[in-house]
Amino acid sequence: MLVKGPGSPALCERLAERLDADVVDVEHNIFPDGEHYVRLLDDVHGEDCVLVQATYPDENLLELFLIQDAIFENGANSLALVVPYYSYARQDKRFMTGEPVSARAISRLIEVGCDSFFSIDLHSENVLDFFNIPSTNLSAMPLLVDHACLFDPDILLSPDEGGKERVMQAAEGTEIDWDYLVKKRIDGETVIIEPKGMKAEGKTVVILDDIISTGGTMVEAARQLFEQGAEEVHAGCTHGLFVGDSLKCLEALCDSVFCADTVECERSEVTVAPLILHELYGIE
């Protein structure tokens, strides 16, 4: 039985359509004092359940824990947890004295009453090491590249060297060149962002990242690529958080902005349902 977390309703429905599976809806409300209430609207006793629930914003993370407990409390046989976007993954180690390892703290809460864990494009693979249950990280980058092919791109770009492996692997099997962006300081006030080994002039460029949050880096990269003569610049990511006015700023500059449905929003043009179906059920 698929349990439709309130953080990922569309993705859960897409999975259900392919599986012809029963879907358990979840009632969720907030009391006047701010506390959350959830309730399963179908019987899960003795069932093998798959809960689909992203953890952004924080209220979704809290409801995830409550729904997990409801599934356990109501006698489910097993629980596989699909967290399309795993928040707090960027804090996967202690950077300064006094900090928590937030990604580990979340994993400890998640694995209580859970038999297996699946996520998409974790910001760091190190997060998997925090789990004491079977855990899997899937990549949506090939799906993003498939969508990017609609624009007939000349170059796929990672916004930094840290993400170049994701873009390189996703570009395999295509005839599209790939590169990553580097910052070059010209003087005390001038920094140029450009591809490491290629020229953007006259090219259609697609920048791909795992997360767009405030969008500052992506906006500045797109602006400079246009200044360097790029014909088109498209911005894509797996997890579109689009904090504040970031989406508005990107849309004003880029030829298109798209993301996956790991965090459901108006730019979720790529579904990760095929990844989940293949991993959990072997469905192509």
Q: How are the elements arranged and paired?
A:
Blueprint: E1 2-4, H1 9-19, E2 23-30, E3 36-40, E4 48-52, H2 58-73, E5 78-83, H3 102-110, E6 116-120, E7 135-138, H4 141-148, E8 155-158, H5 164-171, E9 177-185, E10 191-195, E11 204-212, H6 216-227, E12 232-240, H7 246-253, E13 256-260, E14 268-270, H8 273-281
Parallel strand pairs: 1-2, 1-4, 4-5, 5-6, 6-7, 8-9, 8-11, 11-12, 12-13, 13-14
Antiparallel strand pairs: 2-3, 9-10
Helix pairs in contact: 1-8, 4-5, 6-7
How would you describe this structure to a colleague?
- Strands 3-2-1-4-5-6-7 form a seven-stranded mixed sheet, sandwiched between helices. A seven-stranded mixed sheet has the order 10-9-8-11-12-13-14.
- The protein is built from eight helices and 14 strands.
- It is globular.
- The chain has 284 residues and is an alpha/beta fold.
- Helices cover 29% and strands 28% of the residues.
